Amino acid sequence: MEFIEANGYPIYFGEDEYQSLNKFIEEKNYSNIFILTDTNSNEYCLTKFLPFLATEKTIEIIEIEPGESEKNITTCVEIWNILTELGGDRKSLLINIGGGVITDIGGFVASTFKRGIDFIHIPTTLLAMVDASVGGKNGVDLGNLKNQIGVINVPKMVLINTEYLSTLPQNEMRSGFAEMVKHGLIHDQIYWTHFRNLQSAQHDYLPQLIHRSIEIKNEIVMQDPTENGIRKALNFGHTLGHAIESYFLENENKKTLLHGEAIAVGMVLESYISWQKGLLSAKEYLEIKNMITTVFETIVFEENDIQPILDLLIHDKKNEYGKIQFALLDGIGNIKINQEIENELIIKSFADYKS
């Protein structure tokens, strides 16, 4: 499968990826190599990777606990201290092997350690492959607020190996499918049709679907690397989705949601809003709602959940001048950014979701 040239770095697929990695490391002559991973990826994925890493450089493995709760500045401080204690310098390389938490925090740590060292992403979850592999967004949460602290800085390369997906439970796979569905809805109506039946994405065609999903995100990011315009299209489903994810993360009476689970709800809600604003037909909206609610478990919202979620919207990164900005569907395959939506319509979207 052909590599994708992203904004200043390549994304490799298949058997040639390790050859490209080893050649790159040899040419760069790094002082030492650090691998950041979590306990899950260390157990299930690192043993698949290390035999292919051909280098005589010193390799140190840094392991953190898994989960969104570790994606904070305290964890960064711990990693920075370990890098310092183990002799990390400006010529060190950090390889991030894991899901979106690892690539987000690893890219941020590398971008800020010694004012910036090189890093490489090896995503091991479907979500990380189709989302974190493109765009250069790295960062951490601020309390329960998603991705409030970070930088846009690209890796030296990304390696996509779908063999790692065999280690994932089904809910993690579905979490990744949510982002792939989003890419079809905002940019490619034909691609969207592949996900109207989830079974079509569970067989030999999955690597091609992943490749196309990454292509779509890359096409958008290349037009707008710093998210001043069309890149905001990628936030469809995320304005409400991130608020829901944050609310469930901080509320001990709620089950913590995977990112894709929250985004799936957000896409239904924001599709409803798109319909009500005359941007989406009723037929298109029901097509989207039926597909997503069939694949993803319905999330229960009580009456007293809605206002706290609305309160969290003010912290969304897309907001400008205190105004909440939505990216809405303008028909399937198209998007309209910078849409201001009144709270009454958002509340109606929750009522429709529950119906």
TrEMBL record:
Task performed by this protein:
Catalyzes the conversion of 3-deoxy-D-arabino-heptulosonate 7-phosphate (DAHP) to dehydroquinate (DHQ).
Official protein name in the record:
3-dehydroquinate synthase
**Catalytic activity, EC:** 4.2.3.4
Q: Which domain of life is it from?
A: Bacteria
In this chain the 3-dehydroquinate synthase N-terminal domain maps to 62-174
- Domain 3-dehydroquinate synthase C-terminal, chain residue ranges per copy: 176-319
Is-annotated flag, keyword Protein transport? no
